[in-house]
Every structure is written in C-alpha cells, then in structure tokens.
C-alpha cells in the first residue's frame, strides 16, 4: 500500500491492484485491475472491511462491461 496522490492510495495483491480515491461526498472510488476469476473475492474483502454499499464493475480490454455487482 502506498500513496498515489494527495487523496489516493494504491493497494494490491497478486490478483488485484487498485487505487482508492475520495469521490464526492463520503464515497470512495476504487479502480484498477482485478483478475476476473477473483472478482467475487474482491467483493468478499470489501464486505469484510465494512465497505457498506458499493458497486463493482468489471470491464474487458476494449472497455465493454463484462460484469456488475451491487452490494
């Protein structure tokens, strides 16, 4: 984990590398690269950390939406 900007942090594992940034209001924007086979694992981690309500979107290399999850 490390600072990526004034208000952002980079976090990662062997299967996920994302940046956390403050969005408008109390929201946090999480974007980056996730192994598609571990998409559900990311949702589990976020839930265990008390993320509350969130939406995950998985896109292919061409920008097409492959999968979406709302929690």
Task: Explain what this protein looks like in three dimensions.
The protein is mainly beta. The protein has one domain (2-70). Helix content is 14%, strand content 45%. It has 1 helix and 6 strands; from the N terminus they run ββββαββ. A 4-stranded antiparallel β-sheet has the order 1-2-3-4, with no helix packed on it. A hairpin with a 5-residue loop joins β5 (55-59) and β6 (65-70). The termini are far apart.
Looking at this protein, list some descriptive labels.
71 residues, mainly beta, four-stranded antiparallel beta sheet, two-stranded antiparallel sheet, 6 strands, globular
Helix content: 10-25%
Shape field: globular
The succession of helices and strands, N to C, reads EEEEHEE
Q: What is the number of E strands?
A: 6
Measure the end-to-end span. Answer: 25 Å
User: Strand percentage, roughly?
Assistant: over 45%
- Total helices: the number is 1
Judged by helices, strands and strand pairing, the structural class is mainly beta
Low-pLDDT runs: none
Task: Note the main sheet.
Answer: 4 strands, antiparallel
